[in-house]
């Protein structure tokens, strides 16, 4: 418990005595990894048919706790009770036999196999495909998870794949279903239908552990929440009786700071222009870009929303210069950059920062100062092809100091930094190169709340200095917070960007599912439907 | 109380440098066991094995003579290995150096003092051209350079055999498969009197210095290191992977080609079908034993050369087969790879059964 507020809140807990035995109870779970104490005396009580949220920032110990329950990690101390009996699952198979099902954030499905084949692989024994398909259809119908057992995974959307994962877990008749950040890949509409499914499951007596850092969702769905911070429980509450702000306080141990409002000026002239860009995908299961057009003016942030796998990676590759494009399709201040590689584009003022920090926007094994050199301008860091090491170190030190990067010195390998600190370093490095246009994907992916705020603030300030900024993100909330205009990418096509004030979450959600051409046109139909 | 191997929070630098020493110690242990099994006194036999080659100045010269090609090729290969380019074809590239340099020597030997430097250059170009084949196949068709460069070794070997058995055979050589002796102008100068150590050791050490500066202090070297350490980051930064493949292959090939000339223009003095003593392969061990760092490759080359020479002496002095030197080289690589696991992993004793303890509490 952190402070009096937290203590007051926990009094709404049902108390230590519950009439029926708990479905799952953890007492004093402790798990130590070489570098970190991931769980430190965690208690958890889940009643039958309860939808229980596990809330916490990245690195708070949520995943480790789930691994302990699912038999993937053995706790160093503490005990686990299942329906009142002490258990110690040593493998996921043991946990499944006990009645624990889990749906992972990153799906484990074979693209080239059908739904039924994928599910058959996960079930014990060798189920025949025909009767299994009937069972799949039956479970799918009962819980509102429409899925065709004969379809191949490769042709399915992320939301559909998640349904397959859920059905696979349900076929084992679980008494507890663990959902790990299930909505991070879904459109708002798909989130709603997922919630309907989960409520139906809970009504049938299945307990659900719902792992999330999205507090609004937790409030809408869950009847109880256990909040973790730095491996310890900092609160147990009924989320319906809380505000997002009060839970955030328990989660981060301080009040959530809002983004400082910027001294906004009207956006200037068109700076970064994408003109009918089409590009095939190098990945057989990727998404080709079709006639993508977007104009970003100086001094504005344009958000590109969309469910992952709809062409974001291809768009990023095309803009960063990792793949070149047909002449004239990408222009910066009138200059054609489409045929240029990343270094030439950076020299002319177009920078990028993809979300994959470990191996793409940073080299994890190289020290921090060499990671500063990765995208530094040659004129300032080299002389006759030789490295000017003092200048490079000074540049790295400046990034570390200005963006509050916590690192074990400039010689520490980039991979030793936490996700948030490394991302601050990467974004800071690109911003200090003073780009005229910056393209970032998922800038706060896997980053703690404090670092996320720093990064968003830095992007807003870059915009205020007159740069054109494109943020490609799957987090609609984030885009709504920092974007001036929002476009939606779906199936490799991009809708026109519309001002944030005119954005309607439902309309964007529908556009994300690829059903309508533009959010604007969509909005009219949505409005019409409302009246 | 079982042992468990777990990942270190970050790779251990100390372990990275300690691992060659651990490997050397374990190899010495294996050597002593072998000597003991052969009915010899292990410690003194090992002492004789290792010190006899260095007993006099001539022996020291032999060590430098053998170490020079190992260091030279090892340094060239290491540049490629740092860039993630796996050139296993140094042996064939060395043979191409023999062919190119040898042609020049046979054709122009005695034409003037320019012949020797021209041979070194021609040999380097020959090796680089041979290495260009896998580089082209890799950049153009994405064919694994490990396989293509390895297979080209056999092609090069057969080409040289054809030349020495055919057009280049010495008419006065009693039909032996060997060329006419090279003209003295075509031979490398000796740097230590009364030994066979020639200028190649100076070239090799100079190459190590240049490589050190190149890889650590130039932007191009940095680009190669990024390409090897994180190919995705290299693409993102705009460091072309293809260029890294070309540079990595060509430097390795050039160095091997020069080393090939060093053999015919050095200790051999004429061209044999077996011009290489397996330096192209042994240099791979040297490169890794030296941590792919020029400063480590020089001592690693000396150590491997010592093992090779010691094998020869073992045959003469101890009556053991000379291949025992090669056996110890292989053992050394084996233990090195095993010890290298400990730079990213560590062994820890796990206290089992912590759960019952808490139950009692």
TrEMBL record, chain A:
Q: Which PROSITE patterns match?
A: ABC_TRANSPORTER_1, ABC_TRANSPORTER_2
Task: Identify the stretch(es) annotated as Disordered.
Answer: 1-20
**Pfam families registered for this protein in UniProt:** ABC_tran
Q: Report the GO molecular function annotations.
A: ATP binding; ATP hydrolysis activity
Claim: Nucleotide-binding is one of the keywords in the record:
yes
Q: Pinpoint the ABC transporter domain residues.
A: 24-255, 271-516
Keywords from UniProt, A to Z, are: ATP-binding, Nucleotide-binding
Q: What is the name listed in the Swiss-Prot or TrEMBL entry for this protein?
A: Nucleoside ABC transporter ATP-binding protein
UniProtKB/TrEMBL annotation, chain B:
- Major location category of this protein: membrane
InterPro entries recorded for this chain? Answer: ABC_transp_permease
Q: Name one GO cellular component term.
A: plasma membrane
What is its subcellular localisation?
Answer: Cell membrane
Residues annotated as transmembrane = 21-37, 57-81, 88-106, 118-137, 146-165, 197-215, 244-265, 271-290, 297-318, 324-342
Membrane-protein topology: Multi-pass membrane protein
What Pfam families does the entry give? BPD_transp_2
A Gene Ontology MF term for this entry?
transmembrane transporter activity
Keywords for the protein's UniProt record, in alphabetical order: Cell membrane, Membrane, Transmembrane, Transmembrane helix
Q: What is this protein called?
A: Nucleoside ABC transporter membrane protein
Q: What is the lineage of its organism?
A: Bacteria, Pseudomonadati, Pseudomonadota, Alphaproteobacteria, Rhodobacterales
